[in-house]
Every structure is written in structure tokens, then in C-alpha cells.
## 1
Amino acid sequence: MKPLLTRRQSLLLGGSALSLFCCCPPGRAEPHRYELTPKKLTDGVWVTRGSDEAINERNGGAIANVAILDSSEGAILIDTGPSRRFGEALMTLAKELTGKPIARVYLTHFHPDHMFGNQAFDPAKLAATKGTIDGMKEYGNAFSDSMYRAAGDWMRGTELVLPQAVVEGAPEDIGNRRLRPLLMRGHTPSDLALFDEKTGILFAGDLVFLDRAPTTPHADIERWRMSLANLSAIPSAMIVPGHGPVESSVRGVEQTSRWLETISHMIGDAFERGLDISEAITLPLPDWTKSIALARYEYERSVMHLYPQFEAARWPRIDERG
């Protein structure tokens, strides 16, 4: 009997003849849809929780928390998510929750899981620090390529859109809501946290992670810990981390700082002992990190990020020798 598919045909179909039985018309795959579930924090404030995973084709890159605030002038968003489709779903949700158009969209930093949903919004409504906009310009195309590889078809049609409004630190009154921008750095060279004076909620962006290991591709660990110390001094009713659950405590601030101190010490000690990267990656993590999602994964990534920094700082340059 002649086989239904040659090996080449099977591979082109994703390695399985089951692809032939897809209910979608040929050439028209069912588009991915983000199912956003808002959690109400208080009157007029909601958060959609990101998945406590790495970016992949299951979650479509939707791993970051995104906030929606109501105001008399319109909806205020904090971050736009990983793709055009996410941004469109977010805009629809914000309009449904508030019954109003979008008044302002803040971006906390330039990482792709927080800003590739920008396409759904008027660029004049998008606001970020100058450092974040500069980072988007510098890394945006590379981020786009890596997101397409990691998240696949979720990213279809997604392109980089830059904010037109620059956040400079002065309090911003939007309708009946006043937001105080807090310009910091550490997770990236330019991080924006926002304090809502009406509710006392602190939106910390990726300066704070809770029960999910922090990412460090553009981190300055010491600056980051200084920013966390400043955040912990703010008397907030709740803290919304960039990743992880919302809590009315500083547990996320303390946990993030402890994680940064732990990995910085481990990686620095491994470097001083002369371990190479492959040896440093295999070091055991302390027991307290067992409850932290992606602890091993992010530790290994941090070794790759931070080892070159130790080398640059502590190894002599041959071309500078007399």
C-alpha cells in the first residue's frame, strides 16, 4: 500500500499526518486569541496576571502583569503586553471595564513582554521615559526576532511602535486620578514605577518580582537593589509587581532584593574561584528558592548575563598593559 505521506510531506506538516484533519480551511489557520481575566484590586483598578513561565508558544508571551485604571477622562493602562494581538485584546477589555476610551498608556521599561502590544494604541497616548524609548530603538528589532522565534504565530503582524510622550517625573493628573512617576533604574537602565495617589497602589513594573525569579539581561544589580530600597520606603496600600501576585506587603520587594543578593554572591564567588560558566551554572541554589517559579532557569540565564560583566570589570585588558 502506498503511504499517505512521504517523509518530506510529513515534516512539512509538522511531523504528523493529523495535520490533515484540521478543521480550518486550507491556508487559514485559526488565529490565536488571548483570554484576559482581570482581577479587581479596588474600585476602578484591575490587573491581568501574566503566566509564571518563560515566553513560549503556549502562553504567547503573556507573562507580564498589565494594569487597567479607570479615570473620569478615560482608561489608563500600564504596559501593553507582548504582541499586537495582546494589545488589541487589552484595549477591548479596558473599554469594556471602564466604558471609556483610552486616555493614557504607560510603559514601565523596554522589555518585549511589556511593550509589543503598542500597535493597538494611538502613539500619542503612549508614554515612557526617554531611556525606555532609547532602549526600544536600540533593541526593538532584535527583540522582535527573538519573540517570533519563542512565541511563534502569536506574534503575527507585530511591529515596534515608539511612544510619542516622554515621562519626566512630574505628577500627571488624568481626570480624577493623579499618578506619580518614579524614575529609577536597575532592572534596565531606565525603569518606571507609578504610584496612584488615589488608591495608594504602587505599580512597580519589573523592579519587583514575586514568587517568580527575576530576569537580568540588562540588569545593574547594585542599582536595582538601591531602587528596591527606595520603593520599600513608600507607604503603599498594595504593590503590583511586573510578574507575580499582587500583595499588600513589601514581600515582593524583599524577595527580589534577596534573590539579587543571592545570585550576585553565588556568581561572583564562582568567578573568583576560577569556575568557568558551565561549572557556575550547575551550582545548587539555596533551599529558600525552591518555591520561586523558574528559579533554576533564571539563575542559569543570569550566569550567562553576569559572567561577562565580572570578566570586563576584573580581568586586565591586554591592550592597556605598559
## 2
Amino acid sequence: MNHAAPGPLADLKVVEICTTIAGPACARLFADFGADVIKIEPAQGDGVRQMGKHVGDISLYAATILRGKQSIALDLKSEEGLAIAKELIKGADILVENNRPGVMERLGLGYEVLSADNPGLVMVRISGYGQDGPYADRPGYGAICEAVGGVRHMTGDPDRPPARVALATTDYLTAVYAAFGAMMCIHERKRSGRGQVIDAALYETAFSQMEPYVPAFQQLGFVPKRVGPNLPTMAPNSLYPTADGEWMLIAANSDIIYERLVRLMGQPELLTDPRFATIRARGQADNMKAIDGIIGAWSSKFHSLELERMLVGQSIPAARIYSIADIYEDPHFAARHMLVDVPHPDLGPVKQAGIVPKLSRTPGAIRHTGPNIGADTERILRGLGLDEARIEELKRNGSVTTERR
């Protein structure tokens, strides 16, 4: 962890009213790069605290996705809790929320209300289907929105039902889109002095990955299908077996790399075979199957580590399929600080994924692990000018909650 210098976003104040993944991940990006992030959560905490693996009752996921943030536990359905939230947002540059459309308005936290007191406020709104349109009221998690966005139709093997990646890929990509939108709005605010709303929809994030197929359907009526480990219309780019029962991903996407591969294989005749002589020819379904079979027969003669060294030694993009255990042993992850020890008050050092991206002059830093629910409630309230008697009153009536483990 690097505490030496403030991050590039150290002048920004962010309030987060989010649950589960996309919203907290977006606000975590701001925190990683120095923003002062206050997370408002209910007394029972963000649902992300119940997700992933736990050590006892301690959420390892919360320790990382909530890192660098402060936690204040408020009852937003109480008049006093809502008033505190509004006061915090009044002094914020960015508000991040990922409730279903209409929830913030029903709470009295719509943009028109908030921007009346804070005209420069940038409000990041993350939802399944966006703030308007016929599907706006639908509940939508990332996996559901992948189905609507066409991604799930493309995922898996052609002879099986659509598969899923057991990771929140659409949530994390939406978090990046949302953070990028917020930075554009902060930049524009320097000219206009005014904030605005970012409307980030999970299904649109998923759909954005379908970019090459949008014109292909309109012009050619082409509907892409699942192709398993292959890259559609591009070969060789697939998984190939090794002698030790592992798999090697080889991506010879250009003619130059393809030539390196077939020369390494000792089969230069594959350069002149009309089925494989060009990228376009290799991308034909039957030809793709044929070249993959030839490469698979060759790759299966070598153990995975030996094969990887051979391929990389010839500047051919290739890699074994890493597990998390492989990542922990890999020197590149260590050299790039992608496995970072972060102190935890109960668990000692806890490994977390490092900061992305790397900045040369003002890098991000993990300031502390994710806080317990309401860990910063009293300090934040004192910062708003409330005295101890008033804080105790708010605790008694349930408008606020202080740290509990």
C-alpha cells in the first residue's frame, strides 16, 4: 500500500448509495485513486457483505470492494436519516446509486431535488435497463442483462445451453463505463459549472460487446452462435490439449503469427494449403475445424509448461489456463503489484487484487480495508457539526447505526 502521496482524485468527494456489485465497484475505483468516498448503507449493511467467502462472519468480498471507503449506517426511510444523507450529498461532487429507477425519487433524493442545493452534483445512476424505456422498471442483475444484451447467447459450446462466466463481468465493465462517465462530467463541469446525470445500464454494457455483429445482422442477416473456445471467423484461436491433460490457449490471429506457429510445428506446407493460406480462409467453419485438429495433434505431444515456453519463445501469443492458485505463484502478478497485502483489524494481512490502471506520476493506493457497517458513522456526524448528545439521540431512535461486527 502506498500512503506517500494523495491520489489524482483527492479533491473529489463521493457519496455512495449502492448495493451488491456494479455501484460499489464504481465507487471503489474512485476510492482507489484518492477520492473521499462515504458509503451510506442500512443498519444490516450492503448485501455484498453476504456474498462470496467468509472467515467466520467476516466478508472477504466486502473487505476489498469496500476498501478505501467510509461507512455510515443510515435509515433513509426516517426523516432524520434522510436529512443527514441530503447534507452529505450537498457537499459531494459525485453521487453513485444503483437502485431501481424511481427509488431515489420516492426517497426524495431525485436529481432535481439534490441539484437544487448542489448544482455541480454529478449523479451516477446504474440500473439494469436504464432510467427510461419500457423495461426500466424490470429488476436486472448483470447475468440477466447479459441474456438481454445478446452476450449469453454467445457464451458456451454450440451443443449445450448457453453458459455463464462465474464472475460479475458485466457489473465490473458497467462500473468502468460509469466511472468514465463521471470523469467526463467532472471535466465538463469546469466549463459550465453544472453537474449532470450518468445513466449506465447493465444491458447496454453487455450489448456494447456485440459491436461487430450489429452491422453484420443489418447488412447480412448474420446471427452469431456459440462457438465454444474458438474466436468466431478467426483461426487458429482456441484451446489445444497438452500431454499432461491441460489446455493451451493459442491465438495466431495474424498471418505473421500463423507463419511462426506452423514453422514451430515443422509443418510449413500449412502456409500454402489453400484452406489455411489466408485469415479469411482459416476463418471458414470447416477450415477452422481442420486447422484446430492439426494443431491439437501437435500440441498434445508436449507438457503445458514446455509448450508455453516454446510458443512464447517464438513470439506467439499463448498461455496456460491459470487458476487462482497459479496466479498466486506467478512472478508477473507479483512484479506488477497485482496481489497486495492489506491490513485487516481481525484477520491480519489480507490479499487483495491490485489497482488498475497504473498511473506513472499519481498512482492509486489502497488506504485501508473495507470498513465494518457504520464504522465511521459517529466521526462523519461530528464532521457535520452534530454534538455527542444529538448523535446519541439519533442512535436511540434508529436513524443512525454505529459500528457493529
## 3
Amino acid sequence: MSAPLAIWTDFGGVLTPPVDVTFNDFCDRVGVPLYALKEAMRLVGEAHGTDSMGVIDIPLLDEASWSEELETELGRTFGLVADLENFGDRWFDGRPANADWIRHLAAFRDRGAFVGLLSNLPPSWERHRRYMVGDSHFDDIVCSYAVGSRKPEPEIFRIAALRAGRAPHECVLVDDLEKNCAGAVAAGWQAVHFRSAEQAARQIANLMDAAAPVAAPLAAAGI
């Protein structure tokens, strides 16, 4: 009999509103154009040999140092004077949890699935995550800063599968980023590209149905 699937959900953009929505709100709040902030994040990441968020997901810099480098890059590249102090506090200010997806995760657990959180998350943002979605919603939590690897790298998927006690093909990533879904599939996982709670829940339910063991006919069982 196959073990129930391990459903690993992303945090930002899945258990929260879409990241693009938060970016727009944040940029309005700090008075920085969206294009400028994203480019500054890209340039700072590139300077450290990674992408926009890789700098603080592992982390290579703490949040305060990262914010200072972003301010410097905004001034150098765009001539903008910006105050990005307490970046995380302002990023999460007024940002609600996705209550619909939380309910679906609870339903998956009720059906016997392992439900975990698999997130690229800076350490200073962990308290915001816990405030929005408590640890009790998950059977395990794997965050990039704690394991030294981040999606879509294969190592974080290997770690998560081991923590769930499942083979790779018995693990499913639910993520709003296609590159992370592709990384999961490359690691032997299944993946659901999250666009809405209802869409993702339907796909997960179908995967769970397909993975469920079929009872042997009574005659074959000698009954």
C-alpha cells in the first residue's frame, strides 16, 4: 500500500496574497517605483552571485544590511532617496493570510495527507509567517534559511522528502512560481502551479484520488 501523499505548500504568494499585489502595495507605502525596486533587488542579488531574494533567503546578508544595499543601489542607479528600514515589517503590514487555502490544507490532512510548509524565507520574516499561519497547521516546516538551500535547488527537495518520510514521487509542491514547480519535477516530485485556492485544491484532490490504494475485490481476498 502506498503512503499518503506529502503536500508541501509554499508560503509567499500561496498562503498570502499574490506577491505582485504585495509589491505594488509596498512600493506605494515607501514611495519607490515598482520597476526601480525590482531592478535594485536584481542588481544587489547579482552582486552577491544570486537572484533578487537569494541574498536574504539563505541568508548571505541580514535584512538590515540588505535594505541598506537596496537604498544605495536605488540612489546609484535611479537617483532615488529611499528609506527601506524595517523592510519586513512594512512588507507584511496589512497582508492577510489565505484563509481558503488554509482550510484546504486542513482538509488534506483530514484525508491522511502529510502537509508541510516549504518556503524560501528570510529568518527575520519567520515571526511574520508564524503570526499569519501558525506551526500547528503543518506536519513539518522546511525553510531555506534553516537548511541552507532554496527552491528550485534540488537539495531542498531532497531534505523535504526525507523529513516527510516519502519517496520523491510521493511529494507534491504547491507553488506560485513556475521555476520552483519545474525544480520540484526535476527532483522527481509532482507539482501544482498555484493560481487560486480552488484550482490548486482540485488538482491536489485529483492527485490524492489517483494515489489512493484500490481495495482488492472480495473474491480475490477469499471473502
